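User: Predict the structure for this protein chain, please.
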Amino acid sequence: MNTEQEFRELCRVHGWKCTPQRLILYTFMRGNVTHPSVDDAWKFAKESIPAITRESVYRILNEFASARLIDRMDRIECAHYDSRTVPHGHLVCERCGEIRDFDLPRPVDLPADIPLEECHHIEVRGSWICPKCRRAAAAK
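Assistant: Here is the predicted structure, written as C-alpha cells:
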C-alpha cells in the first residue's frame, strides 16, 4: 500500500476528511526520526500549501498524536513530535535542543499490575551535550 492509500485508509478509520493539509503532514511525519517541532512541520507544509496556518498544523499533528500515529513530546522548549511510537528513550542536548533516540532494553519492565499492552506511552529522557556542541565549545 502506498503512502496516499495508507493515508486514505487512516482518514476513513478515524473519520477525518482527506485534506491536502493532512496528507502533506502525514507524508512529512511518516518515518521522520528528526523529532520535528510544529514550526518545522509548518515550514515543510508551506512549501506545498502556502496558505496553511501554524494553528492548522498544530491541530492536525495533535489529531495524529491522539490517534497514536505519532507521539507528542512536551516539556522541551516547544512541542516536538515523534514518528517512532514503540517504547524508546531520548537524549536532549542542553545547548542546541537536538533530540536523539536510543533503544530501551527489551522487554520493558513495568510494574506487575500494568500489562505492557495497556501502557500508551513509555518515555525515558536524558539530557546531554551533543557532539556538535562539544566540538563548538572545544573550538572556543
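The mean pLDDT is 89.
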